[in-house]
Amino acid sequence: MSSSLAQGAIAFLIDLAEKGEIDPWDVQVIDVIDRFLKTLKDQPTAKQPTEQGRSSYESSLSESGQAFLYASMLVLLKADTLVRHELEQQQEDLTGDDFFDDELDFSADELPKNLEQHIHRRAVAPPPAKRQVTLSELIGQLEAIAAAMSEPSRVRSRAAKPHTKREAVRAISELAHQENLNEIADALNAFLENHWDDVFEDTVNWMDFELLLTHWANFRPDVLGGPIQGELSESDYKHEKVGVFWGLLFLTSQSKVELLQENFYQDLKVRQLNEVTLAEVPAYALPD
Fold first, then answer.
1. E strand or H helix at 6, and its extent?
2. Nearest Cα to 199, choosing from 265, 104, 271?
3. Is a pLDDT exceeding 80 seen at residue 274?
4. Which of 58, 71, 255, 281 gets the highest tally of CB atoms within 10 A of its CB?
5. CB 144 within 8 A of CB 6
6. Residue 260 or 73, more confident
7. How far apart are CA 144 and CA 147, in angstroms?
8. CB atoms within 10 A of CB 145
9. By percentage, how much of the chain surpasses pLDDT 90?
10. What are the TM regions of this chain, as residue ranges (predicted)?
11. How does DSSP classify residue 97?
C-alpha cells in the first residue's frame, strides 16, 4: 500500500485509542480491521473535475488500486487472526478437569484406594495462554505491509538490442532476397503453364532439373533480368540454380508442381501438375 494509506490506517488506530474505543494493550484485531475497511468503503468520491478535466477519483486511480490491495491484505490478516482465535478457543475448551476421567466421583471425605490407578492423564498438552495483540504490534504489522507493497519489482524489462549496421544490411538483403524468390516462383509458374507443352508432348513425363534450368534461361522474364545470354559464371549459376529450386519448393507447397528424387544426392526431376489428372499420375514411393 502507499505510504498515505499506511499513515491513514495508523492514524485511525491512534484516534481509536485516544477516544478509548480500543485497548492499546489488547487490540481486538477483527473489529479494528472491519471498522477500517468500512472507512475505505465509505470514502466519498469527488465529482469535481481537476485541472486536466478529470475527476479526482480518476486522477487517483493508482491510489484506489493500492487501497484495494491494502484491503485484501488486511482481509488476509483478519482471516489468519480468525483461524488463530478458533484454535485458541478449541484449546481453551480443554479445562483442567478434562485431564481426569469423567466417571470418577470423589468426595472430600472418602478417596479410593490406589488412587494412581484411577487417575489417567490424557495425551493432550495444556492450552497455551491467549496472546494479546498490542497497538504497537498492530502498527508494526501495518508498516511491514506498507514496506512490502512499496518495494519495487525486481523484474527488469529487456530493452531491444540495437542492431549493428552489418545486421541491418543483412536483414534488408534477406528481405529483398525473399521478395525475389516470390517473383521467381510466380515467373516459374507462368513459364511452366505457358511452355511446358512446348517441351513435352506428354504432360505426365518428368523433366530433369538441369534441363529445366536450360529452358528457364531462355524464357526468364524481364522482371528477373531477362533471358540469360551466354554462359554464367560458377557463382552466378549456383545463385540462379538455388533461386529456381526455392521457387519450385514454393510451387510444390501449392500443389502446382511435383518434385522427385529416386535416391538421395541424385538427380532431381520436376513435373507440372496443373494439367495432369490424378488418375494419370502414377504413385511413387520416397527413397529410404
1. helix 3-18
2. 271
3. no
4. 71
5. no
6. 260
7. 5
8. 20
9. 0
10. none
11. G
